[in-house]
Amino acid sequence: MKEGDTYDFRHFYTCNISVKRDFLFYETKWFDTDFIYAAFEDVELGYRLSKKGLEIVYQPQILGYHYHYHTSWSFSKRQYKSGVMSYLLIKKHPGTICVLNAQVKRLFNLLLHLPFAQKSYSVDFEERMWKNAIRLISYFESYPNKTVDYLFLKVLDYSYYNGFIDALFKEKSIHSKIRYIHYKQYLRPAIKYFYREIANEDDKKILLQHGFGDAIV
């Protein structure tokens, strides 16, 4: 981001933003309370205001300090909830797809693989692998290196998209199959790469202890 440049509604972070009163005065509501989790409620407001001419200008000298302590578990949960709310944003405002298209691209890829998914699989298999992955990054929390950082980002990203998938497909018959394909296409390759890149044999055994034997063969 560059000083003085303007940015779209995705950067409407209410943790540190100032808005002219006129933009808010005529709004029938500010935050939409349908966003039950602390995610995307500010972006949604920013989107509505942008339709009325709001521009976001970046000023780096205006600082806001926030401290939120998270563990691997709590941040994965936060990412999941963010994914749920991102679906709600798109549902309420289809026009946001043009800039929030990463979710749509991943969804399209998963649907392309749907006809080729194996017919037999455990319904709770993906859920178990997801939780195992969070346990795994919890174990490696104190390991400061790029390989571990890679896995952290992949698991957090996976958690986010699981939230989006659940919000969209929870009541549909293909829900569990979509989650399984998501594991096969995104989480499993990340685990396999992580196993290949870590040098310590004891660390490799940790992956087996966390139930990822299928991912590293």
Determine the N-to-C terminus distance: 42 Å
Instruction: Tell me the number of helical segments per DSSP (H or I, 4 or more residues long).
Output: 8
Taking the sheet with the most strands, its summary is:
2 strands, antiparallel
Backbone structural class: mainly alpha
How confident is the prediction overall: mean pLDDT?
88
Low-confidence stretches: none
The helix content is 55-70%
Proportion of residues in β-strands: under 5%
Q: For the largest sheet, list the strands in their spatial order.
A: 1-2
Number of domains: 2
Tell how many strands the DSSP assignment holds.
2
Tell me the layout of helices and strands.
Elements: E1 6-7, H1 21-25, H2 41-50, E2 56-57, H3 72-92, H4 101-113, H5 125-139, H6 146-169, H7 175-197, H8 201-209
Antiparallel strand pairs: 1-2
Describe this structure in words.
This protein has 217 residues and is mainly α. The chain has two domains: 6-57, no CATH class; 99-215, no CATH class. The protein is built from eight helices and two strands; from the N terminus they run βααβαααααα. The protein has a two-stranded antiparallel sheet. The radius of gyration is 20 Å and the shape is globular. The mean pLDDT is 88.
Short description:
The chain is 55% helix and 2% strand. The protein is mainly alpha-helical and 217 residues long. It has 2 domains: 6-57, no CATH class; 99-215, no CATH class.
Write out key terms for the chains shown:
single chain, about 220 residues, mainly alpha, 2 domains, two-stranded antiparallel ribbon, 8 helices, globular
